């Protein structure tokens, strides 16, 4: 088990609330960190680089105020950078991140040694999203501090590997931090992730259905009434395989059982707002969620959710201790 210094003794649960396009904003990040869970957001959620600077100012201010008022250290927060040739903001956003010395950077899509070196140079750490061992080995060779194993059933651009096999194989060559992503909805899932060999769990869909999340209420309600069977995993909507709720695919005018493959992924069009067509768009109109939706039945505040996850995590460990006594 390995945890970077910046996360040691700062977390109330071994959990990161994953960055989600259009969904994670300062409100969610601040509430997560106050509750002792790492809050994160994609750098592309603020619609300009100037706005990214404003968001970071606000988060820094609120967390400093929390620490001053309570004497408690909040969990650190993280920012997600989409490292891809079609993200025109990458270098400008990175300059703002350097200015704020953001402790944790989550890189996704591809890995870039120059970006990693610049983050390490100011003392930040980099966790990189991977869906298989080939990508993980490449990221490890570039000296990332952690690998996020995005497994089958995850929300967003999910992988398709079983978590036992992916975490197991990653552990054979990577002794730094490993995170398990995909279907972490309950405290017992966090305990299970650690039993499988992960250091931390990484949850997206569960945090979509919280009061502070920025998606509309209809989106949150759809998660509450969805189960794993309602999740469509397809490359047709976003260019790479991703998970979307069946009901929202139908609402957007598509047949979830007969989807035409999309062209190559283009974040310029998809995420930076250059697409001026009136076609229904992934993320904004076609709503993503993972198979973990099946374990989500309400829309609590983030503080309520974290406190429930903690109780469930503890119960899972107590139950496990009793179960394993029979065999040990
Ligand atoms: C609506 C939505 C948007 C997402 N956007 C991003 C993103 O912008 N960047 C990223 O690295 N991952 C993104 N993800 C993936 C999450 O960070 C995380 O890997 C995933 O949600 C974990 O699986 P879970 O949803 O089953 O918990 C997104 C996921 C969802 C559900």
UniProtKB/TrEMBL annotation:
The organism of origin for this protein: Dasania phycosphaerae
Protein name: Nitronate monooxygenase family protein
Gene3D superfamilies named among the record's database cross-references: Aldolase class I (3.20.20.70)
Any Pfam family hit: NMO
Record keyword Iron present: no
GO MF term list: nitronate monooxygenase activity
Superkingdom, natural source: Bacteria
Key words, A-Z: Flavoprotein, FMN, Monooxygenase, Oxidoreductase
UniProt record similarity statement: Belongs to the nitronate monooxygenase family. NMO class I subfamily.
PANTHER family named in the record: BLR1330 PROTEIN (PTHR42747:SF4), NITRONATE MONOOXYGENASE-RELATED (PTHR42747)
CDD domains from the UniProt entry: NPD_like
């Amino acid at each position: 088990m390995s945890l970077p210094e910046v996360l040691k003794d700062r977390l109330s649960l071994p959990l990161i609330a994953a960055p989600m396009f259009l969904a994670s904003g300062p409100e969610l990040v601040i509430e997560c960190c106050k509750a002792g869970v790492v809050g994160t957001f994609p750098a592309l959620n603020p619609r300009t680089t100037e706005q990214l600077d404003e968001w970071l100012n606000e988060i820094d201010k609120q967390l400093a105020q929390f620490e001053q008022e309570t004497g408690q250290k909040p969990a650190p927060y993280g920012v997600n950078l989409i490292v891809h040739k079609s993200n025109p903001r990458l270098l400008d956003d990175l300059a703002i991140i350097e200015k704020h010395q953001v402790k944790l950077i989550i890189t996704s899509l591809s890995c870039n040694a120059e970006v990693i070196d610049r983050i390490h140079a100011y003392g930040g750490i980099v966790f990189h999203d991977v869906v298989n061992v080939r990508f993980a080995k490449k990221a490890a060779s570039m000296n990332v501090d952690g690998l996020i194993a995005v497994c089958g059933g995850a929300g967003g651009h999910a992988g398709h590997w079983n978590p036992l096999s992916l975490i197991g194989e990653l552990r054979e060559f990577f002794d730094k931090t490993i995170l398990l992503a995909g279907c972490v909805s309950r405290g017992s899932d966090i305990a299970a992730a650690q039993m499988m060999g992960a250091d931390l769990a990484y949850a997206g869909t569960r945090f979509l259905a919280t009061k502070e999340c920025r998606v509309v209420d209809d989106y949150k309600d759809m998660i509450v009434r969805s189960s794993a069977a309602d999740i469509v995993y397809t490359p047709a909507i976003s260019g790479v395989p991703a998970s979307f709720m069946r009901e929202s695919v139908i609402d957007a005018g598509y047949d979830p059982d007969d989807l035409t493959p999309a062209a190559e992924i283009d974040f310029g069009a998809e995420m930076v707002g250059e697409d001026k067509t009136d076609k229904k768009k992934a993320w904004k109109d076609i709503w993503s969620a993972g198979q973990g939706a099946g374990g989500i039945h309400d829309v609590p505040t983030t503080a309520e959710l974290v406190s429930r996850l903690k109780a469930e995590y503890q119960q899972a460990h107590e139950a496990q201790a009793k179960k394993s006594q029979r065999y040990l």
